[in-house]
Amino acid sequence: MDFNMKKLASDAGIFFTRAVQFTEEKFGQAEKTELDAHFENLLARADSTKNWTERILRQTEVLLQPNPSARVEEFLYEKLDRKVPSRVTNGELLAQYMAEAAGELGPTTPYGKTLIKVSEAEKRLGAAERDFIHTASVSFLTPLRNFLEGDWKTIAKERRLLQNRRLDLDACKARLKKAKAAEAKATLWNDEVDKAEQELRVAQTEFDRQAEVTRLLLEGISSTHVNHLRCLHEFVKSQTTYYAQCYRHMLDLQKQLGSSEGAIFPGTFVGTTEPASPPLSSASPTTAAATMPTVPQVASLAPAGEAPLCLEEVAPPASGTRKARVLYDYEAADSSELALLADELITVYSLPGMDPDWLIGERGNKKGKVPVTYLELLS
């Protein structure tokens, strides 16, 4: 009991001494041991890393889950160390509504059939979104959280210890200074000066030891940057995979709708008046190739069972021709196709029984088949 009381009294005395030293430093009444410039830079870099990691983490969470209530729910589940329940994505919910609407309005009607097709595509988009959210959470968000809840807390703890050791050191320096001043006036015995010098040596040793421990942890921020860089690459990879899946699903849906559109609205064009996303000009050849639309299977100009038509004999219809802008360069596979250059304008039209993924294109006195996915049809 007596030991505990003495320890509490000692701790209280140390705390009071540190508080006095800290207050006097703030008012410029006491000297303060300054850290070297390299150490200060390490501290600044660590603080900057922590602040930006928090901001990137929060904004990525908003990107993956825009609903704030859902984010709070997921946070509580994680704190309780419980599995987050599976949640239906917006795309999957839309797919469910469209499928139910088709069943009620008539699944065999043109509108009902289209609802079913779009519903299936939205369901695939929702599944792709779910995979992306899971992959991004595991490969990107989790490492950022681990840093903030693990390494950073350790650094913050050691920094607080270093601050206390520094206050103790400066308090010892102040006591020694006062002891020497009193000795000069012959009001203090030499053993008090010796005691102050001994306390200063101990405080200096503890400060130097704690400074080295803190320095090593701060220098470890470089390894943290390397780890976060690797995680960032994984995040970009998962995001690229997600958008590539979305593009493929929507391209397949566009082809399906184009095929049915030709049957429902005879004489209309297959395709879209909106341009597909062209490859970035700064992308590498490999990346650009990955973003190019898939060339549809080459089909004959004539219906099955009939002799193929000769392109020279093909004449444009009296009405129904349109202008189209070429989105990407296209190299003709054979003499029946027309080579294309990006951004040029050509005349296009369709023929009865022709594959809906292809049109006849004309440029000057040249004509040939062209893939619809490489064109932006103009009104």
What would you say this structure looks like, in words?
- With 379 residues, this protein is an alpha+beta fold.
- The chain is 63% helix and 7% strand.
- It has helices spanning 2-26, 37-64, 68-79, 90-105, 110-184, 190-219, 221-264, 285-291; strands at residues 322-326, 345-349, 358-363, 366-371, 375-377.
- The chain has a five-stranded antiparallel β-sheet with strand order 4-3-2-1-5, with no helix packed on it.
- The chain is elongated and about 120 Å long.
- 19% of the residues are buried.
- Beta percentage is 5-15%
Coarse shape:
elongated
The low-pLDDT segments are: 265-290, 303-307
Instruction: Give a count of the beta strands, DSSP E runs of length 2 or more.
Output: 5
Coarse structural class:
alpha+beta
Mean pLDDT over the residues = 81
Q: Compute the separation of the termini in Å.
A: 93 Å
Largest sheet: 5 strands, antiparallel
Give the H and E element order.
HHHHHHHHEEEEE
Helical amount: 55-70%
Radius of gyration: 37 Å
Looking across the biggest beta sheet, what order are the strands in? 4-3-2-1-5
Total helix count? 8
At a glance:
The chain is of the alpha+beta class and 379 residues long.
